Amino acid sequence: MAPALRYLGGACARARGGFSGALAWGWGPAPGAPWPLGRGGRRASTSSFDVVIVGGGIVGLASARALILRHPALSIGVLEKEKDLAVHQTGHNSGVIHSGIYYKPESLKARLCVQGAALIYEYCNQKGISYKQCGKLIVAVEQEEIPRLQALYERGLQNGVRGLRLIQPEDIKKKEPYCRGLMAIDCPYTGIVDYRQVALSFAQDFQEAGGSVLTNFEVKEIETAKESPSRSKDGVTYPIVIRNTKGEEVRCQYVVTCAGLYSDRISELSGCNPNPRIVPFRGDYLVLKPEKRYLVKGNIYPVPDSRFPFLGVHFTPRMDGSIWLGPNAVLALKREGYRPFDFSARDVMDVIIKSGLIKLVFQNFSYGVNEMYKALFLSATVKHLQKFIPEITVSDIRRWAQRTLHQQLQ
Question: Can you tell me the distance from the alpha carbon of 188 to that of 299, in angstroms, rounded to the nearest whole number?
């Protein structure tokens, strides 16, 4: 396999001149055809690009958009295996715009989260994308949680999170009348948005700048061409060959992989190191019945326990007005398995043989057992939720709002 994942600075520096002409695609692309363009285009053929980005989720589309806006002379294509864009992790998440309070100060995660929150609000305002800056309370309900809450508050201040306050029970009730707690962090800058809508707007920006999107293109092979195709005008200009499961191919100079739950496998196809391996976890959300939505105004989160890799069950308002409760975190038996009995033998074998699952299980055994118990018994999840809002009962909840997938790197 070819070491196809190269330094993009070289691609940008090597771009020669501009690309004239235009590409115009009709709506409703056929399998393997480009996704509809807004306007504009490039002289490059549909099968040859300076840069190809594998993955049409929000990370791939944001990368494509940023690259083409900074380097408009490049011809850039995005490959997506599904018939639509942003249908997996981008379209299966809680939709929270996090403020950046959780991450280690001065870390890249902390900087990106704080800056990213500001940028996403700015972008949504520019594009007219709806969002709600409904805020978040991180609530301590046990005395032993208060030192962790205070440490988290200090971390948020170090990270430069805007508007943070430590508040007492009377102020908790002002923000969330039905919430009970001993102390809380008020994060007014936290919000919610439909990230798939944001991703599709990124795609539109990318296409209007001349980029191309090809859907129904599931990458099977990435290699460096040993010789140029006969009578090919591209010659050795585009030495990397990307083939899909139907035998169709795209050629390019550089490839960037943003493949989400398949990022380790696509990295391996490109000749790069597949580690860290992906271990898929499914998050199951409950939904509060419409007549009980008045119980929750904004995001309500527990104080995180640093011993465990998840934030815990929380209350999440959605853009459609619904209230999600959850998630639990249960090992998924398929990388894109949104239902409990979705199964892939290959995915299961990869988790057992190639990942650090055994280490993860032993490190978090009690937590994992508790998550499985809550997944099986609704009353167990409700009992946890009642620590924050005692008025909630089993009859106020229905299963399931949606099942999300997130990846644990091992």
Answer: 10
- Give every CB contact of residue 57 below 8 A, 6+ residues apart in sequence: 85, 86, 88, 89, 90, 199, 258, 260
pLDDT, tens only, 370-403: 777 777 788 888 999 999 999 999 999 987 655 6
Compute the distance between CA of residue 362 and CA of residue 400 in angstroms, rounded to an integer. Answer: 29
> Can you tell me the distance from the alpha carbon of 87 to that of 197, in angstroms, rounded to the nearest whole number?
11
Q: What is the pLDDT of residues 77-129, one digit of tens each?
A: 999 999 999 999 999 999 999 999 999 999 999 999 999 999 999 999 999 99
Closest of 249, 250, 225 to residue 239, by C-alpha:
225
The H or E element spanning position 220 is strand 219-224
CA–CA separation, 194 and 209 (whole Å): 23
CA distances in angstroms from 326 to 306, 322, 404, listed in the order given: 18, 13, 11
Q: CB-based burial of residue 70 (10 Å sphere; 0-12 exposed, 13-18 middle, 19+ buried)?
A: exposed
The residue to which tokens 């403020």 are assigned? 99
What's the rounded Cα separation, in Å, for the pair 236 and 239?
5
What pairing do the DSSP bridges indicate for beta strands 240-244 and 323-326? unpaired
What phi-psi label fits residue 17: left (phi over 0), alpha (psi between -120 and 50 degrees) or beta? left
Enter the DSSP assignment of 131. E
CA dist 372 → 171, 281, 307, 314 (Å): 35, 12, 18, 17
Q: What count of other Cβ atoms lies within 10 Å of the Cβ of residue 167?
A: 17
Angle subtended at Cα 366 by Cα 148 and Cα 372, rounded to the nearest 5 degrees: 110
Structure tokens at 225: 């061409």
Rounded Cα distance between 381 and 371, Å, is 9
Q: How far apart are the first and last CA of the chain?
A: 24
